[in-house]
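To: structure subgroup
Subject: Chain for Friday's discussion

All,

I'm putting the inputs and outputs inline so they're searchable in the archive.
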Amino acid sequence: MHNKIYLFDSTENHEDLLPLSFTRPISDFRVGIRTIREKWESLLPGSYRYLPVEYLREKFGKTPDPEENVTLIAGSLLPDPYIINEIKSLSSGEALTDGGEPIAFKGRYADFTCQNFTAKPASQQARRIKHVFDIFLKNPEEIHNDFFHITENRNSLPLSDTNRIIGDFEDPDGRQLLFIEEGATVEGATINLKEGPVYIGKDAEIMEGSSVRGPLALCQNAKIRMNSKIYGGCTFGPHCKVGGEIDNSVLFGFSNKAHDGYLGNAAIGEWCNIGAGVNASNLKNDYSKIRIWNYRTHTFMRTDLQFCGPIIGDHTKIGVNCMLNTATVLGVGVNLHGAGFPRPFVPSFSEGSPSGGFSNVLMKKFLQIAERVLDRRDIPLGDSDRRIYEKIYEVASKFKG
């Protein structure tokens, strides 16, 4: 294979995965323990680069030279042995397709952009993150996949005897089901391994009184606070703080839901804060199938799901005791507060409450708050970040409901 591997995002994929793709390439989504890019890097050797939509390229990666020979892989594609072998078998000038859509290509970049290639349909349906709800739907399986790859032939730190384990430490194949990385702390917790593995990352912490169920991924420096109730299928990315009751939800990183309140079947970006007592519905009262806002089609799309909680873009804040309807979508930089339920779609850079109405957040104010939030983690807000937010602000009106 060509050594340069680009993880590309089509405009359609990008818009279907808004608001989470507003601020990052799709392959930077965390699903399971690792991001999609990290999965590919560990399973298919090569020199990896992002190829996101145009306005993200200043920060995340430049366009290849038209004459450059490359391997392209869709950033929404989840790797497994089958798809890796399919990609390896491509000849120059061939594109692997799924449902008629190219998901991998090998050859001259100019040939890909003008669709001058031979289509080679995949032999089975590819595993992809095509819609925002795929993140939590596929998360339990991806925790399993990542866990056994990351922990293979490695030794976990011992578990303190202040904890209680439900289930066996090993699966029927003799593989360990609990792994604790260096510097992690787990005291006085109940850990249920019957439904899947539990991964506790470097310097992470599970505080006393918490009950957690696998499959679970607690990434580096993340914390589960005292007396939390964490159900299976959850991923808490680096530096997240969580508490209360959470089920089958993914927090990409640097986001907090640190207090009591319910969150289920959710996908949340970075630098978000969910205040104390916030409760988000994931089931309609009439048990009907759920519809969710889709940015590309500018309408609420069918999901055929009975359970779907909130989808929340980066830098969104939810005040204490707020309530969210089933499948509420909150864009980037939303500041929600006050009583009552907001409508199920709140556009980016909106500030206000259901009772008092919403107004636009000024870009200057948003950047000041974002800079303050990142500074708490000693992370600078770069010029390229500012231009990305300004571009999102510029196009936000296109994606209003």
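Points worth raising on Friday:
The chain has a mean pLDDT of 96.
DSSP finds eight helices and 35 strands in the chain.

D.
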